[in-house]
Amino acid sequence: MAGADIEARPRWRRLRIAVWMGAALMLLLPAMAMQLTDAMNWGPGDFAVLGAMLLGAAGALELAARFSGSGAYLAAGGIAVGTAFLVIVVNLAVGIVGSEANPANLLFAGVLGVGIVGAFAARFRPRGMALALVAMAGAQILFAIIALLAGLGTIHGTIPVVTILLVTLWLASALLFRKAAQEGDRTGAA
């Protein structure tokens, strides 16, 4: 393993507890909210979906920590996983385009699909991951344009705001993956 690995592993060990405890807390929040208000009415299926999402997100961060000891790689993975989690949660809860039932929200799943295909094509190597995240940002912009042209939103609506936020996060992750690739180049582990 690279020299950067030695630096990042202890950091990840400390963060690991926070990640898994945070996931557990996020799963408990709806249960606590249900005790306080009748507006929150979740069933076992809702908790199962959230639990699976949290397990997937925390597991993805574990994989990122194993693929590279670079702090930049881990931060890039954290931003990418967190952003993907945010997209899924918002779409399931209220929807980004109209309500959560609006099929146009599947466009956002397409962006995640671009990232998944790109990550596997890159074999999770930092340089390829940077390209996959840039492709996700491009897909995000393309899908926003498609949604606007199809009349699913307005220039003054949520689509442009959400697109700017998500593109910024995808590109931030790409820049960090690029930094991790450069660190690997300097240490001889690409």
Task: Spell out the key features of this protein.
190 residues, mainly alpha, disordered N terminus
Distance between the termini: 11 Å
- Helix count equals 6
Give me the secondary-structure category: mainly alpha
Question: What's the assembly state of these chains?
Answer: single chain
Kindly state the number of beta strands.
Answer: 0
Strand content: under 5%
* SSE order: HHHHHH
Largest sheet, in brief, is: none
Measured as a percent range, the helix fraction is over 70%
Mean pLDDT: 85
Which helices and strands occur, and which strands form pairs?
Elements: H1 3-36, H2 44-67, H3 71-93, H4 106-121, H5 126-149, H6 158-187
Helix pairs in contact: 1-2, 2-3, 3-6, 4-5, 5-6
Give an overview of the whole structure:
This protein has helices at residues 3-36, 44-67, 71-93, 106-121, 126-149, 158-187. The chain is mainly α. α2 packs antiparallel against α3, α4 runs antiparallel to α5 and α5 packs antiparallel against α6. The radius of gyration is 18 Å and the shape is flat.
